[in-house]
Structure to design on (238 residues):
């Protein structure tokens, strides 16, 4: 029998197929079905710090500053109320997933501050996460903000998180990096055990027929190897 076992982030996996972060993983039954279908690890949907910190007026002011003058800019950001899980619910779901399946469960975190990244990463580790995926995205909005400065912020963030937890950490990168070999090498030095080179973002778009702007997020259609074959998308561990 062919041995498909491999390693990802230092974790020994039974095969090379890892289910990427998806809303499907919000349901325990789906998580069990993923394992039954042959998934060797499962990345849970992301926990968003912005949702957890809605009570923080400072953060709310930062996110909404200037929108009174440019109301259309509100449409560029996803509605915070759409995030489905609070911290306690997420951590409890993580614990239940660990109890329900034998394959590694990876938590996914999308933070907004270094302190938040570190705090929630520690909570995920305590809840039993086998690894943590940092869902990073930095949008440069100031003309004085250089690419070097953005990369340095990312490296400092990764260093802070990897220094605070013992489980392996992966970094999900945006499509905006041009010197990937250099960035990935520095991420490794900062403590990251792996990188994920795909993501889905909310982007402003313009409808040329209505001359209106709004967020744009293209969702994938089910891919099939034969007629009638559908299912969740998977990522390959290489």
């Amino acid at each position: 029998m062919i041995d498909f076992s491999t390693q990802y982030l230092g974790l020994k996996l039974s095969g090379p197929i890892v289910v990427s972060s998806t809303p499907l993983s919000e349901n325990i039954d789906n998580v069990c079905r993923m394992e039954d279908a042959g998934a060797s690890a499962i990345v849970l949907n992301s926990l968003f710090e912005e949702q957890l910190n809605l009570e923080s007026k400072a953060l709310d002011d930062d996110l909404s500053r200037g929108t009174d003058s440019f109301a259309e800019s509100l449409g560029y950001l996803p509605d915070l109320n759409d995030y489905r899980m609070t911290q306690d619910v997420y951590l409890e779901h993580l614990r239940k997933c660990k109890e329900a399946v034998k394959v590694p469960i990876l938590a996914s975190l999308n933070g907004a501050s270094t302190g938040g990244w570190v705090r929630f990463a520690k909570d995920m580790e305590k809840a039993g996460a086998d690894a943590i995926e940092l869902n990073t995205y930095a949008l440069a909005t100031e003309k004085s903000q250089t690419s070097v400065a953005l990369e340095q912020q990312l490296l400092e963030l990764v260093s802070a998180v990897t220094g605070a937890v013992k489980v392996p950490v992966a970094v999900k990168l945006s499509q905006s990096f041009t010197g990937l070999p250099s960035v990935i090498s520095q991420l490794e030095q900062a403590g990251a055990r792996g990188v994920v080179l795909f993501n889905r973002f909310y982007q402003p778009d313009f409808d040329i027929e209505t001359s209106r702007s709004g967020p744009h997020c293209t969702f994938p259609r089910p891919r099939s190897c034969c007629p009638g074959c559908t299912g969740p998308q998977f990522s390959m561990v290489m």
Q: What stands out?
A: The domain at 6-54+85-201 is CATH 3.20.20.70 (TIM Barrel). Residues 145 and 200 are 23 Å apart (CA to CA).
